[in-house]
Amino acid sequence: MPPAGTYHGTARRPRLWALRPDRSGSGTVTEAECTTCLDGSGAADDGRGPAVWCLAHTQETGHTGFRRIRTDFFRASCD
Ligand SMILES: [Zn+2]
Asked: Per the database record, which ranges form the DUF7848 domain (predicted)?
């Protein structure tokens, strides 16, 4: 009987995958959404555009609750 951890004499090591931040595309994307009417700011590369949109939306509609959605990207790679 072979020792534990060997596969019938095949010395193949499993490939090790790792997740790393993906810097090939855009950076973190920020978006704001109204929790009352679900209208949204659209995605932006910085948080300032969505924040300005929230304040304008409050002035127009009286809605005061918002959800901030921040998306960042990862890529799996194998060493
Ligand atoms: Zn709204």
From this structure: 11-77
At residue 18, the 3 state secondary structure works out as strand
Task: Give residue 27's pLDDT band: very low, low, confident or very high (50, 70, 90).
Answer: confident
Burial of 50 (0-12, 13-18, 19+ CB in 10 A): buried
Rounded to whole angstroms, how far apart are CA atoms 30 and 53? Answer: 12
The Å distance, Cα 65 to ligand 1 centre, comes to 8
Task: Return mean pLDDT, the chain.
Answer: 88
Gap from CA of 37 to ligand 1 centroid (Å): 4
Phi/psi class of residue 8: alpha, beta or left (left: φ > 0; alpha: ψ in -120 to 50)?
Answer: left
